[in-house]
Amino acid sequence: MYDFHQTIANKFDSCIRNLTTFVKGLSAFRDIYSEDQISLLKYGCFDVIFLRSIKEAQRKHMIEDTPKTLLPPLLEEVFDMTPGPFNKYVGKG
């Protein structure tokens, strides 16, 4: 059970670090007071990670439920073209 908790902790740590690096690059984020930046990261980080995980779960479900034709590779390609810095969470970055 310890390995499971350690794995989850490591994944969250990586996601939080990537998210922090991403938002620091946003000009709107840099323009607000540092206390507000900390609050946004502190209280919004898990929400962003959760929302991102929903998108990835839907992606997997959609691809798995598509008949085995040319559509799954096409769907993969469309999802891969989706802009965003979070592709690294699913091994795309």
Tally of structural domains:
1
What is the H/E string?
A: HHHH
What is the alpha-carbon Rg in Å?
16 Å
Figure out the total of helices. Answer: 4
Helix content: over 70%
Low-confidence stretches: 89-93
Q: How would a crystallographer describe the biggest sheet?
A: none
Beta-strand content: under 5%
Arithmetic mean of pLDDT: 73
Shape, please? flat
C-alpha end-to-end distance: 29 Å
Short recap of the structure:
This protein has 93 residues and is an all-alpha fold. It has 4 helices and no strands.
Please give a structural write-up.
Keywords: Receptor, Transcription, Transcription regulation. This is NR LBD domain-containing protein. With about 90 residues, this protein is mostly helical. The protein has one domain. It has helices at about 1-25, 25-30, 35-65, 70-80. α1 crosses α3 (about 35-65) and α3 runs antiparallel to α4 (about 70-80). The chain starts with a helix and ends in a 12-residue tail after the last helix.
Write the layout of secondary structure elements.
Blueprint: H1 2-24, H2 27-30, H3 34-65, H4 71-81
Helix pairs in contact: 1-3, 3-4
Q: Notable features of this structure?
A:
93 residues; mainly alpha; 4 helices; 0% strand; flat
